[in-house]
Design a protein that fits this description.
Layout (H helix, E strand, L loop, with lengths): L3 H34 L1 H12 E6 L6 E2 L5 E13 L1 H9 L11 H12 L3 H14 L6 E7 L1 H8 L6 E10 L7 H4 L11 H5 L1 H4 L4 E6 L12 E3 L6 E4 L3 H17 L4 E8 L5 E7 L18 H4 L9 H10 L8 E4 L2 E3 L5 E3 L7 E4 H7 L2 H8 L4 H10 L26 H6 L10 H12 L3 E3 L4 E5 L5 E3 L5 E3 L3 H17 L3 H4 L7 E10 L6 E14 L6 E8 L11 H14 L18
Parallel strand pairs: 2-8
Antiparallel strand pairs: 1-6, 2-3, 3-4, 3-5, 6-7, 8-16, 9-10, 9-21, 11-14, 12-13, 15-18, 16-17, 19-20, 20-21
Helix pairs in contact: 3-5, 4-5, 10-20, 12-18, 13-18
Organism: Microbacterium suwonense
Keywords: Cell cycle, Cell division, Membrane
Family: Belongs to the transpeptidase family.
């Protein structure tokens, strides 16, 4: 028989069981929510609160020359620090089992020996930090330690010494092609040159090392997660660093000997448009850019534009021959000074009686008056178009940082003087790189190939990305270019610098330029100040290389004769470096001496 008391006890049991089951269900629900439904969120949250992460730096890619010689690379150094509070704790510890094997006095001796300091200096770092803050956990030991120094410190097994790895940029060949290679700032950001131009290839992607930590900051075994760093790629240039070194030494000597402000040598391979050397003085050493004025941190071969002067008379000759208006033996009557119908007066750079100048002879004597008469046989719009075809007014395809494109006015804006002065390299500006590009086209039988400075980018995994094939364009007829080449050979044989510029065993083509420099204050030129240049092609029977030499404001000789020795040495070295076979025939003298 069920009594009232029995029924009450049963109800209480049922209620208690229901409560227990409800609480248990709540716990199960919460456990499922934590471990299943929102597991990822909680893991991420725990990683944030209970883990730490350190960066794994990747190495920036190398810059190498055409032969693989390293011009820029990354090296790792270590910045080391001490934990003053931990050192103090160990020193005050009374339990011998908890003390390090080395006392602070002993450890500081060994540390000092490794990092190149005095023991008292090391101890002073710690005592000063503790004096300023008894709980200090940081005192800088020394930055920029080598790998050997880092390993020696690590092998001391001292918990209060920590070192952080850091990449630094080094340039093993110093100033060799330094104006091209460029440099990084103190934050590791590319500032100029190839370092900046090819940042996408060279830049590394840092990795990370994360792990969970338990009580007391102890790393939890098995919790480590490593995302490896991806090193930057290797940029291979078209230049030969050995050739560049020689030309830098040579142009430095000649620039100083001629009392010039700057000098440069540019070498271009005719059949490919590849820049094989770009030597400059003053040169910048990317390891220490402060050894030269910031003006010279950039490449003047790409960033300085000037009126090319007489070197562009060959372009005028190519224009009028290509247009069928004249031949090398066509002639004009030319005094040393002439005033044209529009009132423009043109002077030759030297006095002479009235001559019947052929076009070839006008190039040999570099007669401004003759070129004015020949050049205006072609209308201004057509001449302006040819100048642009030869690269005037457009940056080269190299895409070099801070590169100038030069200036040229549209033909309909040429004034009365421009109509004539453009025939002999005035009223527009070019860079040495553009000048080299124009002569590459003449040397390549009228086919202009975009200049290039980079061969390839090779990823860290070995994948090679070749540079895009350069664009090319036939800008004058092959026969036109051949005729101009012959005229340039006559300049080399019969011009005033013939003996100084001759390269024994080789037939060469040559043109000089002594360009007036702008006053910088409106129209007009500086008096007695010139930017001189000399550009040549060799061997003329099968052109392989173009060499451009420039001097800014030479003072010993103020004409392009100042460039003659540098040109001869540069062309000789280029032909030697690339083992170009000597000409099979002597210097061509089939054409008569033109007047």
């Amino acid at each position: 028989m069920t009594t009232r008391a029995t029924r009450g006890t049963r109800r209480r049991t049922v209620v208690a069981l229901a409560v227990i089951l409800t609480v248990l269900a709540a716990f199960v629900f919460r456990l499922v929510d934590i471990q299943v439904v929102h597991a990822d969120d909680h893991v991420a949250d725990s990683m944030t609160k209970l883990s730490t992460s350190t960066s794994i730096p990747g190495a920036r890619g190398d810059i190498v020359d055409e032969n693989g010689t390293v011009l820029a690379s990354d090296a790792f150094v270590y910045d080391s620090q001490l934990d003053p509070k931990l050192i103090d704790t160990y020193e005050k510890e009374t339990d011998p089992k908890k003390k390090p094997e080395l006392s602070w006095a002993q450890a500081s001796e060994k540390i000092a020996e490794i990092v190149g300091m005095e023991p008292d200096e090391v101890r002073e770092l710690v005592s000063s930090a503790l004096e300023a803050n008894p709980n200090s956990r940081y005192a800088k030991l020394k930055n920029g330690l080598s790998t050997d120094q880092y390993l020696a410190l690590r092998d001391l097994h001292l918990a209060y010494v920590a070192s952080k790895k850091r990449a630094v940029r080094v340039y093993p060949n110093g100033a060799v092609a330094g104006n091209l290679v460029g440099f990084l700032n103190g934050e590791g950001e590319p500032q100029y040159g190839i370092e900046r131009m090819d940042q996408k290839c060279l830049a590394a992607t840092d990795g990370s090392n994360s792990y969970k930590i338990g009580r007391g900051g102890v790393r939890i075994p098995g919790s480590e997660r490593i995302v490896p760093a991806i090193d930057g790629g290797t940029v291979q240039l078209t230049i030969d660093s050995d050739l560049n070194w020689y030309l830098q030494q040579m142009i430095a000597e000649e620039t100083q000997r001629q009392g010039a402000q700057t000098g440069s040598v540019t070498v271009v391979e005719v059949k490919t448009g590849k820049i094989r050397a770009a030597a400059e003085y003053p040169a910048v050493d990317p390891n220490n850019i402060n050894t030269v004025d910031p003006t010279y941190w950039r490449s003047h071969i790409f960033s300085d534009a000037y009126e090319p002067g007489s070197t562009f008379k060959a372009i005028t000759a190519a224009t009028i021959i290509d247009q069928g208006k004249a031949t090398p033996t066509s002639h004009v009557t030319a005094p040393a000074r002439v005033t044209f119908p529009n009132g423009t007066t043109i002077n030759d750079p030297f006095p002479h009686p009235v001559h019947e100048y052929t076009l070839a002879g006008a190039l040999i004597d570099s007669s401004n008056v003759s070129l004015s008469k020949f050049g205006t046989m072609v209308d201004p719009a057509t001449r302006a178009d040819y100048l642009k075809r030869f690269g005037v007014g457009e940056k080269t395809a190299v895409g070099f940082p801070a590169e100038q494109k030069g200036l040229i006015k549209d033909a309909d804006k040429w004034n009365g003087g421009d109509v004539y002065t453009t025939t002999f390299g005035q009223a527009f500006t070019v860079t040495p790189a553009q000048l080299a590009g124009a002569y590459q086209a003449l040397a390549n039988d009228g086919k202009k190939i975009d200049l290039s400075l980079v061969e390839s980018c090779t990823d860290a995994d070995g994948t090679v990305h070749e540079a895009a094939a350069p664009k090319s364009e036939q800008i004058v007829k092959p026969d036109t270019a051949k005729q101009v080449q012959r005229m340039l050979e006559n300049v080399a044989v019969q011009g005033g610098n013939a003996k100084t510029t001759a390269v024994p065993g080789y037939r060469i083509g040559l043109k000089t330029g002594s360009a007036q420099k702008s006053s910088g204050n409106g129209p007009g030129y500086k008096k007695g100040v010139y930017f001189t240049s000399m550009v040549g092609i060799a061997p003329i029977e099968d052109p392989q290389y173009v060499v451009v030499v420039t001097l800014d404001e030479p003072t010993k000789m103020r004409t392009s004769a100042a460039d003659a020795v540098a040109f001869q040495q540069a062309m000789t070295q280029v032909l030697k470096t690339y083992r170009v076979a000597p000409s099979s025939e002597p210097m061509d003298a089939l054409l008569p001496k033109f007047n």
